[in-house]
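Q: Sequence in, structure out?
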Amino acid sequence: MYAHWVPRERILLTNLWSAELTKLTANAMLAQRISSINSISALCEATGADVQQVHHVNHLHSVGHKSGANVVFGMPPAVLTMSRGVNGGTRRV
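A: Exactly. Output:
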């Protein structure tokens, strides 16, 4: 399905159950990250800390900013940013 526009070496092949479990766990981990940043935002409001600064520093730490450290969150800053939003479900193909 993706072979027409995605290079073959970038396509990961798994069995059906591994693919389904990967999708479900990825959604669960994203929901946890969103919940965490929302809690951090509430803490910042209560203490007077700047949520943008806290988020930025934690992101640098989590991805090992040029230090070669292991990725903890594994997402670019724009993906894990404070905002109003709803994490929608995945659509069936």
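The helical segments are 16-47, 51-62.
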